[in-house]
Specification:
With about 110 residues, the protein is of the alpha+beta class. The chain is built from 4 helices and 3 strands; from the N terminus they run H-H-E-H-H-E-E. A hairpin with a 2-residue loop joins strand 2 and strand 3.
């Protein structure tokens, strides 16, 4: 599946000098592989900072970029802050979460 852009290019691909999209591509591949095996994938701070350096953007911007990255791959992301740094939990939407035909009339 080809990545689609959601609301413009991701920060990593366009705004961080000297950084190419190879880190994002690798992260996407790793997450997809994990999601093929289990319902979620946890990505820790040391991997997140390769794609979204926390010293180069505000926490709000960083979280927004992580969410946009997840959405661009059809996933959701839950971002948790803790003693050991940020963690992002990526998941695919559940198949029965949305009924494409809407509510059933009684």
């Amino acid at each position: 599946m080809k990545n689609k852009e959601v609301h413009g290019p991701l920060m990593n691909e366009s705004e961080i000098p000297g950084n190419d999209s190879s880190s994002l591509k690798r992260l996407a591949e790793d997450i997809a592989a994990q999601l093929d095996k289990r319902p979620f994938c946890v990505v820790f701070e040391d991997y997140l900072k390769r794609c979204w350096p926390s010293k180069q953007m505000s926490p709000e911007k960083r979280n927004s970029e992580i969410h946009r990255f997840a959405e661009s791959h059809g996933w959701s992301a839950t971002i948790l802050e803790g003693v050991f740094g940020t963690r992002a939990i990526f998941q695919r939407p559940e198949a029965d979460a949305v009924d494409p035909q809407g509510p059933v009339a009684s």
